[in-house]
Specification:
By secondary structure, the protein is of the alpha/beta class. The protein contains 11 helices and 12 strands. The chain has a 5-stranded mixed sheet. It has a 5-stranded mixed sheet with strand order 9-8-10-7-11, sandwiched between helices. α8 links the parallel β8 and β9. α1 crosses α3, α1 packs across α4 and α2 crosses α3. The longest helix is centred in the first third of the chain and has 25 residues. It is globular. It starts with a helix and ends in a 7-residue tail after the last helix.
């Protein structure tokens, strides 16, 4: 079986689109379509129903997709375990978490554990496969899901606050919601400003500048371009340094949490155990047991 064809199939099924799979793989739409057709021919099974706006897995395609994803995840984890140096820990995290939470703490980590190193793999969505040796995942979600191969800890609830540069003129802090929405609003992919505007029924037309990353919106706030909403754990270094000031906090619980997971199979190994303990300590938590 051609593993490259299976990877193309898995991406097309995940995205529900040959075009989006092609973009993810940096190949043409025609190349994706050709490889799927060849796979269907080899198997003697139609895997997708072709629709005007994308593709949909057939019933047999759905069952095959689940098996392929599991197999690819197993291969990926085994490869990662085989090639990873024993004292290098890989963190699977979002780009803004890396920029705003991890980077300010790297110097402290390196001073405390000079014999170890951290590497990052950036993801826009939670990692789907099981974690291997020396791998840790951190991600925000409402519910963590369940993987029996993983240890799981809830690090914190996401407490959302609005922040801006201390140089922006404001009547005081905290401000009320109407005053808050009168500022230029710096919005990331979570679309929190859109939801707040909708919930308050604002009749005005707030100025909203859109960014695809939380870190970019926060950097724009630091430079005085407006107000951003972010969870407190992501902005603590900027608040302490006086680059940002908090002017509003959400009166409602976000219902979202930050989760940490690592493989049960390797939990006893010293580099992984020490890194997990360090992350927990940064959130004021102790290891279990």
């Amino acid at each position: 079986m051609n593993l490259n064809a299976l990877r193309v199939f898995a991406l097309a099924a995940r995205h529900g689109s040959f075009q989006r799979a092609a973009e993810a793989l940096h190949i043409s739409h025609g190349a994706v379509s050709q490889r799927i057709k060849q796979l269907e021919s080899d198997l003697g099974v139609v895997l997708f129903d072709r629709k005007p706006r994308g593709v949909v897995l057939t019933p047999r395609g759905k069952s095959y997709h689940a098996a392929v994803e599991e197999a690819l995840a197993t291969l990926s984890a085994a490869t990662a375990e085989l090639t990873r140096p024993a004292r290098r820990i890989t963190l699977h995290i979002g780009s803004s978490f890396a920029a705003k939470w991890l980077m300010p703490r790297m110097k402290g980590f390196n001073a405390r554990f000079p014999e170890m190193s951290l590497a990052t793999e950036i993801h826009d969505t939670p990692l789907e496969r099981s974690l291997g040796r020396n791998e840790i995942a951190l991600w925000p979600a409402r519910t963590p899901g369940h993987n029996p191969a993983h240890h799981l800890r809830r690090l914190c609830e996401l407490r959302l606050v609005a922040v801006c540069s201390p140089d922006i003129h404001r009547p005081g802090a905290p401000v009320d919601t109407d005053t808050l929405l009168s500022f230029p609003l710096l919005q990331d992919a979570h679309r929190r400003w859109d939801r707040l505007i909708g919930e308050t029924g604002s009749r005005g037309a707030p100025t909203v500048l859109n960014f695809d990353r939380s870190a970019l919106a926060l950097d724009a706030a630091i430079h005085g371009h407006g107000v951003a909403i972010a969870p407190t754990f992501m902005i603590e270094p900027d608040l302490r340094a006086g680059r940002l000031v908090e002017i509003w906090h959400s009166p409602e619980a976000s219902g979202e949490y930050l989760f940490l997971s690592w493989a049960r199979q390797y939990a006893h190994e010293r580099p992984l155990k020490r890194t997990v303990t360090w992350i927990l300590s940064e959130f004021g938590l102790e290891p279990e047991g």
